[in-house]
Amino acid sequence: MKFISKSLKETAEAAKKILRQVSAEPRSKATVAALYGDLGSGKTALVQEVGKLLGIKEPIQSPTFVIMKRFEILASSEPKRGQKDLRFKSLMHIDAYRLEQASELEKLGWKEIISNEENLIFIEWPERVGKILPSGTLKVYLKFLDEKTREISFGEE
Ligand SMILES: Nc1ncnc2c1ncn2[C@@H]1O[C@H](COP(=O)(O)OP(=O)(O)OP(=O)(O)O)[C@@H](O)[C@H]1O
Ligand SMILES: [Mg+2]
Fold it and tell me: Which CATH number fits domain 2-156: 3.30.590.20, 3.40.50.300, 3.30.565.10, 3.40.980.10?
């Protein structure tokens, strides 16, 4: 699927579609979405919109220095989820930009994190840790077209 987004509002529409797609797939492990795209292509902006849809109130910023941030998805935000049966309890936001190798993510408990079906994981700069992304990872590609316009495409490998 390919979208052209001309505003954050339209990026929120793409976030909604991504969320709908990953929620529809029954899984026994975590759901991982890899966000590919240059600096400023809108990876963090997309995660921020996902966060809003999941009722997360805390500000979501690029976790460049902490690498990984976990946000709790409260049951009370259910109506905002847009679907009744969403199983995710945590949104994990990872920025692999500063990682030099996949083993650094493993030190942060990656194996355990991806084995929990209640985790919804968005990872920026996934090419840094490519080899340890689980099979079934949703690949999302973002492109800067102009100041206000981004191309967002996704589909399972
Ligand atoms: N249509 C759009 N969709 C998303 N973001 C947009 C759009 N138009 C403008 N922007 C702006 O583009 C910027 C995207 O920055 P963002 O931090 O999300 O990029 P990033 O891909 O996460 O970069 P980095 O690799 O540095 O983490 C934001 O300032 C956002 O407001
Ligand atoms: Mg970012």
Answer: 3.40.50.300
